[in-house]
Specification:
single chain
Length: about 80
């Protein structure tokens, strides 16, 4: 019976997190610096492309780190159960 309590708590936590995500306004995710927006909107095509490239360059390292951690976790998942 005690093994069922943590799974019930985990399930309820996931449900609450999912429901909470529906109540977070989408406007909160779209806040930008007005100066940055006007500069990017008024820039030429070459600068817009450079901005897009910069965003990709800044996104790649954290994404690769997360993928690396997920792979390491997947490979080590049963190490403690075997001992």
């Amino acid at each position: 019976m005690s093994s069922q309590i943590p799974s019930a708590i985990r399930r309820n936590t996931r449900i609450l997190a999912l429901l909470g995500s529906f109540f977070v306004p989408s406007v909160a995710f779209a806040q930008n610096c007005a100066l940055c927006y006007t500069q990017a909107a008024g820039a030429g095509a070459r600068i817009a492309q450079a901005l897009r490239s910069g965003i990709v360059i800044l996104v790649l390292p954290p994404m690769l780190i997360c993928i690396g951690l997920a792979v390491m976790t997947y490979r080590k998942r049963n190490q403690f159960n075997e001992e």
